[in-house]
């Protein structure tokens, strides 16, 4: 018998995404339409433009995901959709559409948390994950540490007190006129630069907390830019970008490995859009090896927003009993922020 199939939808920010996954977590299709070009002129996501674009894209993207999986809507046994956190207008497009499909087909609909889905992305490529695990999620909207004592048990151990790491990269790229999103441009233009050229003092929390802060690094970056005449076409641009990126990597991993001392996890997980970053991936793996811990990081295309990760978490939740009511869960509501 062929495995049951699930259709997952993700519209929390500026990607319209749909994926079809088998119950064995086989990814039958994983379609992502980025809105980067729409938001690039503004140097960041414009929420109203994002929701309008999701409305235009959702039908063709869901159609494409079914076509790429070689199935029709009648072959789908369950539906999943990102419920939050994210931009409320964007979330509502995916959520309403998924409710409509689930209602029409009379199949269960599972609401999925976006941050937890980023973490669960590793399950698509690693069948066995040993717990306790400590996960660092770094994206344009989130920078947090989660302890998973066991599968599906998420306890936040640290969060950013101001900007997310990706947001800091995006803002500095915008300031220098390098384009949006900032992370990939900074990586590319800083690749040949000297990461030791400019000195960034790393933030330290006065308490023993594992919280992050990136506003200090951003202010330091602006000061270094001003004092050294760093510009889009200056000779020191590559060195500056390499130094800035490296400071962010050290701040992120500093907290992760401090957390590892506190929680003694068997597995470390790195995920979220910024986990595509080469310097971050390399350093993460090197330090985990040195600490003798398993280090898992999804393939780059599963780090940025996608619906396969939403499907992976949905199947895990279904295995744990979600959606067994069988109904389409029409009362699911979107939430813009993390539940407290
Ligand atoms: O997870 P994601 O797709 O969306 C959110 O949930 O926020 O992450 C987007 C973020 C952006 O800030 C982008 O600049 C960053 O991921 N990013 C990168 C790289 N690719 C994407 N940051 C550093 N290096 C990269 N290669
Ligand atoms: Zn995300």
Topology:
Layout: E1 5-10, E2 15-22, E3 27-34, H1 36-39, H2 47-69, E4 78-84, H3 88-105, E5 109-113, H4 114-120, E6 133-138, E7 143-148, E8 154-159, H5 165-175, H6 182-190, H7 215-228, H8 237-263, E9 267-271, H9 278-291, E10 294-296, H10 300-303, H11 308-319
Residues 114, 118, 139, 272-273, 305 line the site of zinc ion.
Structure description:
- With 340 residues, the protein is of the alpha/beta class.
- It is built from eleven helices and ten strands.
- The chain has a five-stranded mixed β-sheet with strand order 3-2-1-4-5, with helices on both faces. The chain has a five-stranded mixed β-sheet with strand order 8-7-6-9-10, with helices on both faces.
- Bound molecules: 5'-O-[(R)-(carboxyoxy)(hydroxy)phosphoryl]adenosine and zinc ion.
- 5'-O-[(R)-(carboxyoxy)(hydroxy)phosphoryl]adenosine binds at residues 13, 139-141, 166, 169-170, 181-184, 187, 272-274, 276-277, 304-305.
List keywords for this structure.
five-stranded mixed β-sheet; 340 residues; single chain; alpha/beta
Radius of gyration: 20 Å
Say which molecules are bound, naming each kind only once.
Answer: 5'-O-[(R)-(carboxyoxy)(hydroxy)phosphoryl]adenosine, zinc ion
- Name the shape in a single word: globular
The total of beta strands comes to 10
- Oligomer category: single chain
Structural class: alpha/beta
- Strand content is 15-25%
Question: Biggest β-sheet, characterized?
Answer: 5 strands, mixed
Question: How much is the average pLDDT?
Answer: 95
The share of residues in helices is 40-55%
Q: Helical stretch count?
A: 11
User: Element order, helices and strands?
Assistant: EEEHHEHEHEEEHHHHEHEHH
The side-by-side strand order for the widest beta sheet comes to: 3-2-1-4-5
Straight-line distance between termini: 42 Å
Low-confidence stretches: none
């Amino acid at each position: 018998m062929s495995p049951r199939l699930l259709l997952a939808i993700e519209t929390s920010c500026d990607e319209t995404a749909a994926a079809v996954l088998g119950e064995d977590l086989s990814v039958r299709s994983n379609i992502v339409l980025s809105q980067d070009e729409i938001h690039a002129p503004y140097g960041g996501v414009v929420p109203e433009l994002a929701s309008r674009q999701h409305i235009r894209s959702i039908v063709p993207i869901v159609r494409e995901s079914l076509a790429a999986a070689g199935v029709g809507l009648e072959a789908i046994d369950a539906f999943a959709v990102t419920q939050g956190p994210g931009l409320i207008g964007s979330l509502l497009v995916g959520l309403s559409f998924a409710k409509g499909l689930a209602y029409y087909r009379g199949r269960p609909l599972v609401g999925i948390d976006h941050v937890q889905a980023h973490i669960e992305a590793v399950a698509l490529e690693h069948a066995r994950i040993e717990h306790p695990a400590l996960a660092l999620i770094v994206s344009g909207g989130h920078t947090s540490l989660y302890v998973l004592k066991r599968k599906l048990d998420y306890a936040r151990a640290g969060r950013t007190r101001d900007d997310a790491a990706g947001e800091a990269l995006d803002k500095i790229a915008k300031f220098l006129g390098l384009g949006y999103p900032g992370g990939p441009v900074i990586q590319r233009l800083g690749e040949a630069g000297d990461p030791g050229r400019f000195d960034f003092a790393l933030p330290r929390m006065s308490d023993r907390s594992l919280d992050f802060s990136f506003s200090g690094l951003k202010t330091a970056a602006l000061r270094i830019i001003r004092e050294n005449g760093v510009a889009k076409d200056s000779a020191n641009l590559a060195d500056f970008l390499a130094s800035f990126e490296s400071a962010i990597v050290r701040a992120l991993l500093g907290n992760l490995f401090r957390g590892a001392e506190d929680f003694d996890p068997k597995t470390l997980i790195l995920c979220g859009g910024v986990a595509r970053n080469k310097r971050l991936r390399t350093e993460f793996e090197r330090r985990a090896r040195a600490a003798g811990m398993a280090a898992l990081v999804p393939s780059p295309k599963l780090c940025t927003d996608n619906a396969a990760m939403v499907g992976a978490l949905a199947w895990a939740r279904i295995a744990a009993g979600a959606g067994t009511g069988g109904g389409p869960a029409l009362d699911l509501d979107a939430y813009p922020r993390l539940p407290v």
